[in-house]
Amino acid sequence: MDHSTEVSRRNFIKNTTGAAVALSIPSIIPASAFGANDRVRVAVLGVNGRGQSHISGFSALSNAEVATLCDPDNNILQKRAQEFEQKTGKKVKTENDLRKVFDDKTIDAVSIATPNHWHALAAIWACQAGKDVYVEKPGSHNLHEGRKLVEAANKYKRVVQHGVQLRSSEALKEAVKHLRDGLIGNVYMARGLVYKWRPDIGDKGTEPIPAGLNYDLWTGPAEMKPFSRNYVHYDWHWHWNYGNGDIGNQGIHETDMCMWGLGVDTFPDKITSSGGKFLWNDAKETPEVLSSSFVYTKEKKIIEFEVRPWMTNDEGGVGIGNIFYGSEGYMVVKGYDYYETFLGKEKKAGPSRKAGGDHYKNFIDAVIAKDPKLLNGPVETAHLSSGLAHLGNIAYRVGRALTFDNKTEKFVGDEEANKLLTRKYRSPYALPQVV
Predict the structure, then answer these.
(1) Where do the Gfo/Idh/MocA-like oxidoreductase bacterial type C-terminal domain residues begin and end (predicted)?
(2) Domain count, the chain
(3) pTM surpassing 0.85?
(4) H/E element, 244
(5) Distance between CA 190 and CA 268 in Å, rounded?
(6) 277 plus 412 within the same structural domain
């Protein structure tokens, strides 16, 4: 695989840690970008769930304007448009087909909050249309898509922000600097924890497509299946055709934090996963419980990841977050904006901090400056953190330990596993050739 157009992963890690942790947006925006009175016109794609946060986040910025809402479910779309007008006093344009948004020359940027199976394709099409992109996590539905997204961002010179908002947390930037500076010694292991309440979704069977939903557009590049309430609108997360389970849902924040904190800039070479469905006899396909290990043999580092869906204890006070282990202590990261450290054998309390950030503002500032280097969550994180989840899921699905080659981005001697690195795309929603 030719990775010549890829921004160096080494440079990515270097530019997002250490001295760059304290990176701030310059006060002077280049005159060649946007005029002093201009605002970035944003279209939000997918407005049922996470898209509502995108609408609020961009609406709160003085240098951005939510200009269009897009969703294949017209019932939800019109409801959101009405809510927008009631809240802001302004009407917003609505579209059901995201391709019409890409054709709209008045749109500067798109914010993608669709189901996972649309993320990379929508982002690549947006880059080809000259739009900058904020794409929700995971940045890809499979590992191959992540590589293509990086290539597209570079080829079309677009600003692409991955929705891992913890990267904009001032507290977690400080935490990573502590890890780089040796506060807890040699940092050799990271744990990612996703302990979320995930109840029985039942099995709702199939039924006619409801009025107002363009199910062909909703399905997009995925295999067409008979309509079910088990897919639309939230529980698609638990079906391989559309989602990636909780390691590829909430877990992307934690896979990203693991890689960021450890300072690893490649995928692991040894992957094992085990788990399954132990609680509910429902329609979910993805595992309720998943334990994955990712070993970086050369770097002598390991990532351990745990997904639990129901009754469980916390670890170090963490239910959603991370724990980093070093030779001189350990660090606990809770959620998106808090860390604390414990030093020495006595676990003496060390530095801690709680402080957030504005990931939407960081994106808009980079768009105005036309400078991807200002991004806290650049496109490389979309490939790396999402890809880590994909590797863990593949090891679970084939049921054996896997060896991964970072140069080819393929598994060594395992064609069954390699087939799961990509998917068959349904016409006309094919992944385009980028390089």
Answers:
(1) 205-266, 360-430
(2) 2
(3) yes
(4) none
(5) 13
(6) yes
